[in-house]
Amino acid sequence: MEHILLTVQNLKCGGCAHTITKKLSALEALQDVLVDADNNTVAFSYTQQNDLDQAKKVLAEIGYPIVGEANPLSAKAQSFVSCAVGRISKN
């Protein structure tokens, strides 16, 4: 099993972290998902490269692309939606 630490864009608060944790934890191939909003990082364990690729795809879809990847206005807007959902579902 591999462990990775990714730095993501648009991660602003605990609401964002909650959404990321929920979405990545739903992927059966990932384990030990940890999100650090203070450092803009996402860590998890995976076994196959396609599991890592799927996680990166999910992150981009919910508005948190990996640092170095494109961060268009649409991703920034999606991160605000994901953040709001995370804040609401956290309570």
Question: Which tags fit this structure?
Answer:
single chain, globular, alpha+beta
List the helices and strands in order.
EHEEHH
β content, as a range? Answer: 15-25%
Unreliable runs, pLDDT <50, ≥5 residues? none
Number of strands: 3
Query: If you average the pLDDT, what whole number results?
Result: 93
Q: What structural category characterises the helix and strand content?
A: alpha+beta
Distance between the termini: 33 Å
How many helical stretches? Answer: 3
Overall helicity: 40-55%
The outline comes out as: globular
The largest sheet is:
3 strands, antiparallel
Strand order of the largest sheet: 1-3-2
Radius of gyration over alpha carbons?
A: 12 Å
What does this structure look like?
It is a single chain. Helices cover 47% and strands 20% of the residues. Strands 1-3-2 form a three-stranded antiparallel sheet, covered by helices on one side. Strand 2 and strand 3 form a beta hairpin. Helix 1 packs across helix 3. The longest helix is centred in the last third of the chain and has 18 residues. The termini are far apart.
Q: What is this structure's SSE topology?
A:
Layout: E1 2-7, H1 14-25, E2 31-36, E3 41-46, H2 49-61, H3 73-90
Antiparallel strand pairs: 1-3, 2-3
Brief sketch in words of this structure:
The chain has three helices and three strands. The chain has 91 residues and is an alpha+beta fold.
